[in-house]
Write a structure and sequence with these properties.
By secondary structure, the protein is of the alpha/beta class. The chain is about 45% helix and about 20% strand. The chain binds pyridoxal-5'-phosphate.
């Protein structure tokens, strides 16, 4: 009996050959392609078959096998195939540099520079004045030198590659001294001891977790020493009784002994954040001014540009690194250079940089501005959803993220949403799976929307997404 009933249902699934004869489906074939539509039609009929086979007899009647329903499923299936997997999301977490969400957003001028270069030939490695082969670094080297005060500069794929390149070029089969207080792990895959091993250099740890003195470095130097490496502890802080050696002292020691001092600054700040009521972070300019020989930092953390590892420092060192075969393996493309050049141009005027570079703008926006934006959002939500959720304003905190400034909680204004019928986890999931996915935090039974990371032009989209999810 059961078997027969199911056979009967299976027979009622429209055949692929019948589906593609439908007028609406013919339009889909016209718009996409015959192959894609046939593939999706057979996906859909396959799904329906599985569903019938796995459904209990009493529930079978609930399965809708009308052609109309099948075509709706077909359109959804095609849509999923043609829409990109890597897609825009709305970041309502308030975490400005969210590594899972792609870190820094590019400034508008950087976005247009990328769009402009992406689809056209360009002078990436052509010196237009002579017609001869040029260097790809010239597009940013001058700007980087001007802004950081360094003699030379180059760019690789990311800061991990930059550190690996520095170590491999100057310390392969030799010793590198690092303070025990600075043996960082960033994001689970960048670990100073592992990068050291991969580069072929030998790590010499000195000092203790909380205190490292100049004499620790002095005592560790021998004929095998190739470098002193300082690593900015960007994702943790050691507090209490602590001591690290300052740049001036370290540079003096390095100069006396003829050993280069290198600093991995991690987040790469080029403006004094203290002027904007944030914690002070060491700037690239400060390190160069103090005489550090080579400084490396990320392009897509606090600098606010594309993913890149930026290396600045003494010309002789930069030139030597450019000749390392690893440089070819770590090389960045025209899109990165386009974005980087445009971002660097904004730094010529630091006030402009803070306004136009989204990462800096989001970190420095006033609480009044945030409150205005949050109130706008609450008004729109209440207009549409007052019967579905309790919607309020609350005080809270945003974070820098991206492993930068871990102890900095920046006061912010949150919009809280407490669904009346469904659970908050259900709402969070529906938002995450929506047409434009929205990422938000949950606290107890409330969804928290931090408007710091939501752009003005995204407010309407956010309202629509929440409306759909509720
Ligand atoms: C983030 C970070 C890195 C890794 O940089 P990527 O650009 O993500 O490769 C290395 N060192 C420090 C100190 C960092 O903060």
């Amino acid at each position: 009996m059961n078997g027969k009933e199911k056979q009967n249902f299976l027979r009622h699934i429209p055949a692929v050959s019948a589906i593609i004869e439908n007028k609406r489906v013919k339009e889909l074939i016209e718009k996409y392609s015959h192959n894609l539509v046939v593939e999706s039609a057979s996906d859909v009929t396959g799904l329906l078959r599985e569903k019938i086979l796995s459904t209990g007899e009493k529930e079978l009647d609930k399965i809708n096998l009308s052609l109309e329903k099948v075509i709706a499923m077909l359109e959804e299936n095609i849509q999923a195939k043609v829409s990109p997997n890597l897609c825009k999301v709305i970041n309502a977490t308030g975490i400005v540099l969210h590594t899972n969400l792609g870190r820094a957003l590019l400034a508008e001028t950087a976005v247009s520079a990328v769009a402009n270069i992406a689809g056209s030939y360009n002078n990436l490695e052509l010196d237009l004045s002579t017609g001869e082969r040029g260097s790809r670094y010239v597009h940013v080297e001058g700007l980087l030198s001007k802004i950081t005060g360094a003699e030379g500069a180059m760019v690789v794929n990311n800061n991990a590659a930059a550190v690996l390149l520095v170590l491999n070029t100057f310390a392969k089969d030799k010793e590198v001294i690092v303070s025990r207080g600075q043996l960082v792990e960033i994001g689970g895959s960048f670990r100073v001891p592992d990068v050291m091993t991969a580069s072929g250099a030998r790590l010499v740890e000195v000092g203790t977790t909380n205190k490292t003195h100049l004499r620790d470095f002095e005592n560790a130097i021998n004929e095998e020493t190739a470098m002193i490496l300082k690593v900015h502890t960007s994702n943790y802080k050691v507090v209490g009784f602590t001591a690290e050696v300052g740049n001036e002292e370290m540079v003096k020691l390095g100069t006396e002994r003829g050993i280069p001092v290198v600093e991995d600054l991690g987040s790469g700040v080029l403006i004094n954040l203290k002027n904007y009521c944030l914690q002070e972070e060491p700037t690239v300019q400060d390190a160069i001014k103090a005489g550090v020989d080579v400084v490396t930092f990320s392009g897509d953390k606090l600098f606010g540009g594309p993913q890149a590892g930026i290396i600045v420092g003494r010309r002789e060192y930069i030139e030597k690194m450019k000749k390392n075969p690893l440089t070819r393996a770590f090389r960045v493309d025209k899109l990165t250079f386009a974005a980087l050049e445009a971002t660097l141009k904004l730094y010529i005027d630091p006030e402009q940089a803070v306004k136009d570079i989204p990462t800096l703008q989001m970190l420095t926006v006033s609480i009044d501005q945030l409150e205005k934006k949050a109130r706008r959002l609450v008004r729109s939500l209440k207009q549409k959803l007052a019967d579905k959720a309790q919607i309020n304003l609350d005080k809270g905190y945003s974070q820098v993220g991206g492993g930068a400034m871990p102890t900095e909680d920046i006061p912010s204004i949150l919009v809280t949403i407490q669904p009346i019928k469904n659970s908050v986890t259900h709402l969070e999931e529906k938002l995450r799976l929506g047409e434009i996915p929205v990422l938000a935090r949950i606290q107890k039974d409330q969804l928290l929307i931090d408007v710091r990371t939501v752009k003005d032009e995204e407010i309407a989209l956010l309202v629509k997404a929440i409306e759909q999810a509720l």
